[in-house]
Design brief:
By secondary structure, the chain is of the alpha/beta class. Helix content is 41%, strand content 16%. The protein contains seven helices and seven strands, in the order E-H-E-H-E-H-E-H-E-H-E-H-H-E. The structure holds nicotinamide-adenine-dinucleotide (NAD).
Amino acid sequence: MSRRVLVTGAYRGIGAACALAFAATGAHVALADIRKPDDTAAAAAKAGAAETLALACDVSDENAVLAVGEAVRKTFGGIDVVVHCAGVIHEAPLLETPVADFDRVIGINLRGSFLVGKMAIGLMDGTEEAPARLIMIASDMAYYGRETFSPYVASKHGVLGLVRSWAKEFAPRVLVNAICPGPIDTEMLGAANMSAEWRARELAIPLGRFGQPEEIGELALFLAGPGGRYFTGQGVGSNGGSIMP
Ligand SMILES: NC(=O)c1ccc[n+]([C@@H]2O[C@H](COP(=O)([O-])OP(=O)(O)OC[C@H]3O[C@@H](n4cnc5c(N)ncnc54)[C@H](O)[C@@H]3O)[C@@H](O)[C@H]2O)c1
């Protein structure tokens, strides 16, 4: 039976690339985003998905996340793989960051990860022989601090904490891992509007280029596939060498 996959943040960027990667394997692909990802769903159907389901969902809203789980369960009969990509970034000096901005970033990135992970694990019926896979997109910033990004950095450190705890709590029936990307060429990175100074700083990594969202899709496929069967509780870097933890 082809796998039943839910991808959040699937409207664009890394989430859209992950959805298309699974679609090309003939999976059933549910796509959720605060903006209903109809276009990505159409592209996923074209790419070979057995079935697609596009859902509007704010991942920081518990009822909306539970409704996504229910819709996927009803339509596909269960969930085997979740790739949680929805997230936001925020840049501002600390003393110019109202607490409302901290609450928003933590609400979407960390609370959203908690809600999506809890919903997913509750619906997954993996076994030791065929474990379900939960993949959370964190960041290489889950491992270090960065000036003017503290709410985002804190949220991504928190995501790794969830992943490491759930990996222990639900082994061996659910394998829980994070992907910790370096700079990936999406609208969030905003390469088109970057200052030359910032661009040079971002590219001062061993591979000297931005990653492509498709490269994260390929990594998610690997972690969800047979090659990923001995991974759990890990933060897996696809980062051009930006960090070497
Ligand atoms: N691009 C990078 O350089 C990079 C690096 C490390 C980690 N990441 C992480 O990868 C993930 C995907 O980022 P991206 O680069 O594709 O960014 P993006 O901005 O292109 O895509 C993010 C998606 O999340 C959706 N989203 C935002 N708030 C939401 C909410 N409340 N509920 C549901 N969906 C919501 C957006 O609509 C969008 O489709 C994020 O978690 C981000 O932190 C990105």
